[in-house]
Design a protein that fits this description.
CATH architecture of the largest domain: Distorted Sandwich
Bound molecules: beta-D-glucopyranose
Number of helices: 2
Mean pLDDT: 92
Structural class: mainly beta
CATH topology of the largest domain: Beta-galactosidase, Chain A, domain 5
Distance between the termini: 38 Å
Number of domains: 2
Length: 388
């Protein structure tokens, strides 16, 4: 009985403490495991137009660390254990805000309003034509010249079920980058107790508008800047894909992967068939149709690095996933620790609706209506292949 009273009393202290510190900028929460789960923030420089940027650090009870900044709601670092228990940063990026401001191929970014390509940078909606930036000439890519990845979001630190989190908010005004409707966006990153970086998306609009958000980290499970990812083994829970034309816009067909170099239904080294997939530059850059499409959080991909034993599992509620092998990386980006990122030095697994859906009536719609909620969840979980 006395024990119970003591437990209740300590719970109360914790609740009061959390309520007290909840509004602070930097705070620690209950010790729950080897490490104290926490969220801290620090200044991370200024944009060219003088907006202050903050960097949030999440550390979970196992000591795994994620850093996300308010510029682009963008993941800058993700430190995960290898099979020997050594932490390493597994996402490409820069040491300072400057690198991101100079321009980069969407490292770690929240991309949208519509991720991937919109053919010929235009679409029709309810009888009206909308023209967008042709920033991937002649197409529109990842939200345009100044998409969500180049906006400064508002951030709020949180604890969710004992796990550190940060909630980002941004209101994209009507007409921004050519898209109709005021779009209210919330993107919440949580570093779960299961070592998953969970990303929850929520959007609402006041006019019909296309929405297709994704996360654009370039992963290298051997560590950012450690070389190419061609030896990583990938399995995709997708037996079909959307073939694309030479400009990477889907033709509208849905085809089986069986018998093609795109087949990752069984684990296979990424480099095994890479030279025969074609493309200019050569490499994987295509959308897969996920086997599970009922909106539940389902496993979409597993990647294992045989060298370090790190394993990445991707779970999503979305229906497609873009697999991209960093084909366009060409050494022009010098990243963290002065490491130069060359072709195939990272891979992206971007859960999303199919590219160019807004112009492809056969594909599931990406139009969000007023009164509806766009909701989606993706989890990037990092474990190892070590036998326990
Ligand atoms: C696209 C690539 C593009 C890259 C960086 C990926 O999502 O599929 O074609 O080069 O983003 O912009």
């Amino acid at each position: 009985m006395q024990n119970l009273t003591q437990q209740l009393a300590s719970c109360l202290v914790v609740v009061v403490l959390l309520a007290f510190v909840g509004g602070c900028e930097s705070w620690d929460a209950v010790r729950d495991g080897e490490f104290k789960p926490m969220v801290t923030s620090e200044p991370f420089g200024q944009t060219e137009d003088g907006q202050a940027v903050e960097l949030y650090t999440l550390r979970n009870k196992h000591g795994m660390v994620a850093k996300i900044m308010t510029y682009g709601a963008l993941l800058t670092e993700l430190h995960a254990y290898d099979r020997d228990g050594k932490l390493g940063d597994v996402v490409l990026g820069f040491d300072s805000l400057d690198g991101y401001l100079k321009g980069h191929p969407y490292f770690g970014a929240t991309t949208g309003r519509v991720a991937n390509r919109i053919a010929n940078a235009k679409f029709m909606l309810n009888g009206q034509e909308f023209k967008l930036a042709a920033n991937n000439d002649p197409h529109h890519l990842h939200g345009g010249d100044k998409g969500l990845d180049k906006r400064v979001w508002k951030a709020e630190p949180l604890m969710r079920d004992g796990a550190p989190a940060v909630r980002f908010k941004y209101t994209s005004p009507d007409g921004e980058e050519g898209y109709p409707g005021t779009l209210d966006l919330t993107v919440t990153y949580t570093l779960t107790n299961e070592n998953g970086l969970q990303i929850d998306y929520l959007a609402t609009t006041d006019k019909p508008t296309p929405v297709n958000l994704t996360h654009h980290s370039y992963f290298n499970l051997a560590g950012a800047g450690s070389g190419d990812i061609l030896g990583h083994e990938l399995q995709l829970m997708a037996s079909r894909y959307t073939p694309g034309d030479e400009t990477l816009v889907p033709t509208g067909q849905i085809a089986p992967v069986a018998g093609t170099p795109f087949d990752f239904t069984e684990p296979k080294p990424i480099g095994k068939d890479l030279k025969i997939v074609g493309g200019d530059p050569i490499g994987y850059d295509l959308n897969y149709v996920l086997n599970s499409s009922n909106g539940s959080l389902s496993k979409a991909a597993v990647v294992r690095d045989p060298k370090t034993g790190r394993v990445l599992e991707v779970f999503t509620t979305d229906i497609g996933i873009q697999f991209y092998t960093g084909n366009f990386l060409d050494g022009t980006n010098t990243g963290k620790g002065g490491k130069v990122y060359e072709q195939y030095h990272g891979f992206c697994l971007e859960p999303q609706h199919f590219p160019n859906s807004i112009n492809t009536p056969k594909f599931p719609s990406v139009v969000l209506e007023p009164g509806e909620q766009y909701r989606k969840t993706t989890v990037y979980r990092l474990t190892t292949d070590a036998v326990k």
